[in-house]
Amino acid sequence: MIRLRELTKKFGSLTAVDGISLSVGRGEVLGFLGPNGAGKSTTMKMVSGFLAPTSGSANVCGHDVVEEPVKVKSRIGYLPERGPSYGDMTPQSFLNFIAAIRGFDGNEKARRVAQTVERLALGEVLGQTIDTLSKGFKSRVGLAQAILHDPEVLMLDEPTDGLDPNQKHHVRNLIREMARDKAIIVSTHILEEVEAVCTRVIIIARGRLLTDDTPEELLARSRHHNAVLVTMDASAVEPVQKEIAALNSVEGVDILDGLEDRARLRVMPKHGRPIVIEISGLIRAKNLPVRELHVEKGSLDEVFRDITRASEGMGEGDA
Amino acid sequence: MRNIRIIALREISGYFTTPLAFVFIVIFLALTGAFAFYVGGFFERGQADLRAFFEFHPWLFLFLVPAIAMRLWAEERKTGTIELLLTLPVSTTEAVLGKFLAAWGFTGVALVLTFPMWITVNVLGTPDNGVIATSYLGSFFMAGAFLAIGACISALTKNQVIAFIVASAVCFLFTMSGLEMVLNFFRGWAPEVLIDAIASMSFLIHFDSVTKGVIDLKDAVYFVSLIAFWLFANVTVVELKKAG
Ligand SMILES: Nc1ncnc2c1ncn2[C@@H]1O[C@H](COP(=O)(O)OP(=O)(O)O)[C@@H](O)[C@H]1O
Ligand SMILES: [Mg+2]
Fold first, then answer.
1. What residue of A is the nearest CA neighbor of B240?
2. What's the rounded mean pLDDT across residues A256-267?
3. N or C terminus: which one in chain B shows less Cβ crowding within 10 Å?
């Protein structure tokens, strides 16, 4: 439903978005990841029709954003970065305005507004001016504005920025609920968010698309993916280390800091393959004095850092 | 049309949820009154008309109208709501017209609220109410022209103070260009055509003839085309800003 082709934006000599191509279909929640200044917001601004692309194109539900901007805008729900809304209005009058401009009238308008208010739990602040609302409510007013017309395409630029953990949880649930029949793009730099809601992840840095994977695939790239943590009595470290290191599928064994009389080893697998079964088999066969095994999934943080750092190296090489 | 109306209504409601509307109207009424009575010599003239009142409108509008226009776009850019507005399913032209009409309607209300002047002059004598009506109309269209200029300039910046000062300066040029003092400066050396052109661009000259009770097609065309031109420029500025 969203198709970007070689989308590019230059601000003077700075290329903020550099030839990004991708498509997002119904039912997908695309996590848009990248360090600050990577070009996430600029990309969204082009798709939403706020900025004109320098070159390339963005197509939403079959309409080109430059040629048919109003058609595109009527199909998108867009939450700009920091969720701006008219501060001197109340959520009630603001949402009435949005509903009217989205083409709803009379009963239908009232119904949409009421439904959205309930969905985002805005009832208690409906009559208060937006300027006086807490950060959490303000950001939910922004979100309400984006989903009021039940759009086919939803673009949220850092929707959970500045929310407390409960509010984040609420917003993530909301995104998951809406995912079924929409194409959603969520930009964020919070990695746990990606694991929580996204079906697909892209990482951009310096305006370039670096990866396009599922969160699971991305995790698999982690150096610690499928590594096994082995805990035992401190006295037993050496024999255990020797036995495990001798396994064919093991790349290496690191000794980690232990707790008091416990010691911990991290067993790194070859090619990220699962090795925990083999290790536990070995432990049973040799009756090794191991107390605990723990399989690591790896961390997106680490993958994210690896990927974006590598690109910075590339960037400097170019310059 | 529907979108223009919705945007205009939202904009207008913004005037009345803040003290802006109140402050503006009070100052406008106080100043138009003060100028008419003290500077224009409303009573001393001993004539039943409102010339003393209308005479000062161009000079009041010079800073009062840019004060309304300055926030139209600059404020939206400053607070970021422009990103919201321009990603709603409305065309740039609709947004520009909606905002302009809201501000213009508001100045219309301010003008209507000067009706005690009209009542006073009717109580004291028998004025030519046709002249007064055309003067009001002229004043309203002149305010519209000032506003269109101010709105366009407001779209160029996110700083309302800059928008105000630049708009006042441009309006000042449009007003001044009709003064004899200014025209004399050109008379010595510039061709007659240029002088006529400069004079014909002036608010004063067109407004003056309107307040004499003559509605000339020329004056109507002048104000309407000036408004149209600056609104078109406003749309262009907003579009160009998208190119970044
Ligand atoms: N209007 C603008 N004018 C000039 N540079 C801009 C503008 N908007 C963004 N940039 C630059 O473009 C780059 C990408 O910004 P942005 O898309 O906001 O990044 P992100 O949202 O990923 O943090 C940054 O270097 C930023 O400074
Ligand atoms: Mg951003």
1. A52
2. 81
3. N
- What confidence tens digit (pLDDT) does each residue in B37-47 have? 777 666 666 67
Residue closest via CA to ligand 1's atom 11 equals A16
Give yes or no for residue A291 having a pLDDT over 90: no
pTM, rounded to two decimals: 0.86
Domain chopping of chain B, boundaries = 2-239
Answer whether A39 contacts ligand 1 (Cβ < 6 A): yes
SS (H, E, C) chain A: CEEEEEEEEEECCEEEEEEEEEEECCCCEEEEECCCCCCHHHHHHHHCCCCCCCEEEEEECCEECCCCHHHHHHHEEEECCCCCCCCCCCHHHHHHHHHHHCCCCHHHHHHHHHHHHHHCCCHHHCCCCHHHCCHHHHHHHHHHHHHCCCCCEEEEECCCCCCCHHHHHHHHHHHHHHHCCCEEEEEECCHHHHHHHCCEEEEEECCEEEEEECHHHHHHCCCCCCCEEEEEEHHHHHHHHHHHHCCCCEEEEEEECCCCCEEEEEEEEHHHCCCHHHHHHHHHHHCCCEEEEEECCCCHHHHHHHHHHHHHHHHHHHC
ipTM of the complex in this document: 0.87
Nearest residue of chain B to residue A102 (CA atoms): B89
Q: What does the pLDDT look like over B61-92, one tens digit per residue?
A: 888 999 999 999 999 999 999 999 999 999 99
